[in-house]
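re: that complex we talked abt at group meeting.

here r the seqs, copy pasted straight from the sheet so there may be weird spacing, ignore it
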Amino acid sequence: MVERQYYFDANALFKYYQDENGDLKIRRLVSNSQKPILVSSLTLLECFNVVMRCRRKNIFKSRRVLRIFKQLKKDARFNTTNRPFQIIPICEEVFSVAQNILFHQARTFQIGTYDALHLAIFQKLSLEPSPILVTSDQSMQNVCKQLSIPFYDPEKE
Amino acid sequence: MERKYKLLIVDDDQDILTEYENHLVKQGFIVEVAHDGTEGLEKLRHDSEFDIALVDFKMPDMNGVDMIHQAYNGGVEADMIIWSEPEEYSKYDAIAAMKLGVNDWFEKSRLDMPKFFQRVKEVAEGVPLAEMAKMLSLIPKEELKW
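got the structure back, here u go
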């Protein structure tokens, strides 16, 4: 039986590194998965953005920022076989798909640019069996239901 | 998924390559070897999966510090450990290595094997998960808006 892969949004990826609600389920998922967990460059960019906000507010010094960045980059690669996270390339088409998702869903659900992009990246994955989107964002989950996207919330159950 | 670390040994001594390749494979590493600096550079540039390279300082085509300098200039992100015989290098070489961000320097004839393997593992692993969690715990909740 072919194992289903998981796609992490930024919040899910952060839970792997940070002790917060759902972290143990996320870590278990990563260590039990036979294949790398899928993330996109956007996922990493969002994490870098949070870290840099903290640098700006002097919560982190540069040395610490560099260590965090280095580790995030070390754990995720394109076309990897031995890293916990595999980066999915973002194709041009993703932006029009995201635009379409925003147009149809954002009038009902509180989703933003990044959410729409994650959903679009996920929709453009052509993997069999279909992967599972991991997110704890309630609005994202509502849109997933609308778009028939399988999802998993590590903060629940 | 079991995380396996990929390591490159760069050394012009075939006996060392064979011996340490065997040791490090037993320690759970995926190991490749290169016989000089040129081959080492080639392998590092073409495979971004290397976590760490163990580089001999004295090689016929270039020294280990020069090889690492070229590797980092070419965008290689692997961590590096240099090893050498005590008489082969000066303090200026060690300072140059330090400035490049080389993680450690060992002397082959004075190698404490368990400590050496432990250090190689530490460097390959990077920041342990517990330390990452400790650092990231400093982020206030309100900053975690996605």
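couple things i noticed - The CA atoms of residues 120 and 133 of chain B lie 22 Å apart. The mean pLDDT of chain B is 95.
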